[in-house]
Write a structure and sequence with these properties.
Helix 3 packs antiparallel against helix 4 and helix 4 packs across helix 8. The chain is an all-alpha fold. Helices cover 74% and strands 0% of the residues. The structure holds phycocyanobilin. Phycocyanobilin binds next to helix 4, helix 5, helix 6 and helix 7.
Length: 169
């Protein structure tokens, strides 16, 4: 699992180069956003259950067929599995935000996920929508907590949405 710093070092080490201007600029921008990343993660951590609940409610309001007979989130067990998946996406997004690197998402979340979803008939489009709803809620809450310069917030959510949704939307 990599973060912004280890990824960069790895790239330079492969070719035996010292960190150049470009590398140092990248590092600087990561460190400059470091405190804000930690604060954003703190907002997520302390509201995670509420964020997942609210996102689930909004998703099922938008797409009520998901929880009707025949829908993939119909039955208590599948409803709970759906919210649990949303909670996974949120938790790993918070890790990726702090790491400043999306590698943790590839390694722990996305690997094999499309195949699993396809084999269980979990619809990808609505899952992607659920991830986008969580992104919007997180952005609202982080802004409400008074944090500015949080342009990095979209990244993990967009990354998961894009990787999961690829070819399928
Ligand atoms: C940490 C990484 C990780 C992820 C991401 C993960 C996802 C994941 N979601 C699953 C199921 C599921 N996922 C959903 C999700 C949904 N259904 C819908 O209609 C909605 C659109 C959506 C919620 C937004 C449902 C309903 C199931 C159960 C499907 C079934 O068993 O029929 C399964 C199958 C095994 C199980 O039920 O636990 C996995 C592996 N597991 C992991 O370990």
């Amino acid at each position: 699992m990599r973060d912004a710093v280890t990824s960069l070092i790895r790239n330079y080490d492969v070719t035996g180069r010292y960190l150049d201007r470009n590398a140092l600029d990248n590092l600087k921008s990561y460190f400059d956003t470091g405190m804000a990343r930690v604060q954003a993660a703190t907002v997520i951590n302390s509201n995670a259950a509420g964020i997942v609940r609210q996102a689930g409610k909004q998703l099922f309001d938008e797409l009520p067929e998901l929880i009707r007979a025949g829908g993939n989130a119909y039955t208590t067990r599948r409803y709970a599995a759906c919210l649990r998946d949303m909670d996974y996406y949120l938790r790993y997004a918070s890790y990726a935000l702090v790491a400043g690197d999306m590698d943790v998402l590839d390694e722990r979340v996305l690997e094999g996920l499309r195949e699993t979803y396809n084999s269980l008939g979990v619809p990808i489009g609505p899952t992607v929508r659920g991830i986008q709803i969580m992104k919007d809620i997180v952005k609202d809450q982080v802004a409400a907590a008074g944090l500015t310069s949080t342009g990095f917030l979209d990244q993990p959510f967009d990354y998961m949405a894009r990787e999961l949704g690829e070819n399928d939307l």
